[in-house]
């Protein structure tokens, strides 16, 4: 299989490296299109694939083109891509917000799959929601799914509208997790630990607690209850969170991300 990746930043290269790791593509068959000179020099040094700075006829010789520029940069790539795209090529967009219909229209090309991964894809531990234009046949969709699964797990969604919710929940989700971890480490520092000790206490807590979610056979409420003794310390913390409407604020923030995903489709 030959693959072109347009925009080789964090996510484009997370995909590229996962494909290479599982031998799903050879380096010579991996075309990396990257506009930034610094970035493309780094990619050349890494010998991650064939690095070029613009979209040209060579892109039309691949089986799959991954669009991994920022949504705002789609306007700077679609004309060049429309000129070279071939009828049998599949376009896989991971750009937040931009609907399949808009990509089809701008590229004058029906075969579009839209996916929303997240940064743990860099470790092969991502989760990607994806959907496809009705024109994409099942065999092609399976091939794309196999590629996505090199970056972690995936879930096919019939309803494209839900991809903006995936973006808000799991696409942006790692940042929410880091935000909470960072606040906990800050609390540790304010109570007298140095950075390293506070980070160790918090990170190991998050790791262990995550595994209990999957193994303890308890609901999240039961897991909370198992930590929060009546009249104890955890209750004092949870009362403060409730007083500050922390849970509601998190829900509101995630919904704001969903709204922003929808706005991104409007450019
Ligand atoms: N970062 C994240 O957590 C996630 C990002 N996404 C989506 O993935 C896409 C890429 O995001 P990141 O990798 O974080 O951004 P990034 O900024 O790391 O990478 C984008 C790359 O595209 C390059 N680029 C811009 N215009 C170009 C052009 N005309 N031709 C060739 N290259 C060009 C930039 O130089 C940059 O290296 C975005 O559309 C974003 O919505 C999706 C899921 C998660
Ligand atoms: O923040 C963003 O717009 C992108 C999409 C999901 C994660 N990062």
Short description:
The protein has 267 residues and is of the alpha/beta class.
Provide the structure class: alpha/beta
The parts where pLDDT drops under 50 for at least 5 residues are none
Largest beta sheet: strand ordering: 3-2-1-4-5-6-7-8
Number of strands: 8
Order of helices and strands: EHEHEEHEHEEHEHHHHHH
| Overall morphology | elongated
How far is the first residue's CA from the last residue's CA? Answer: 32 Å
CATH superfamily of the largest domain: NAD(P)-binding Rossmann-like Domain
Bound molecule kinds, no repeats: 1,4-dihydronicotinamide adenine dinucleotide, (2S)-3,4-dihydro-2H-pyrrole-2-carboxylic acid
**H/I helix tally:** 11
Which CATH-level-2 architecture of the largest domain?
A: 3-Layer(aba) Sandwich
Strand-residue proportion: 5-15%
- What gyration radius follows from the Cα positions, in whole Å? 21 Å
- Overall residue-averaged pLDDT value: 97
- CATH level-3 fold name of the largest domain: Rossmann fold
Tell me what you see in this structure.
Helices cover 51% and strands 13% of the residues. It is of the alpha/beta class and 267 residues long. The protein has 2 domains: 3-166, Rossmann fold, CATH 3.40.50.720; 173-264, ProC C-terminal domain-like (ProC C-terminal domain-like fold, Orthogonal Bundle). It has an 8-stranded mixed β-sheet with strand order 3-2-1-4-5-6-7-8, sandwiched between helices. Strand 5 (90-93), helix 4 and strand 6 form a beta-alpha-beta unit. Helix 6 crosses helix 11 (246-264) and helix 7 crosses helix 8. The protein is elongated. Bound molecules: 1,4-dihydronicotinamide adenine dinucleotide (NAI) and (2S)-3,4-dihydro-2H-pyrrole-2-carboxylic acid (A1CAB). The site of (2S)-3,4-dihydro-2H-pyrrole-2-carboxylic acid has 4 residues, from helix 6. It catalyses: L-proline + NAD(+) = (S)-1-pyrroline-5-carboxylate + NADH + 2 H(+); L-proline + NADP(+) = (S)-1-pyrroline-5-carboxylate + NADPH + 2 H(+).
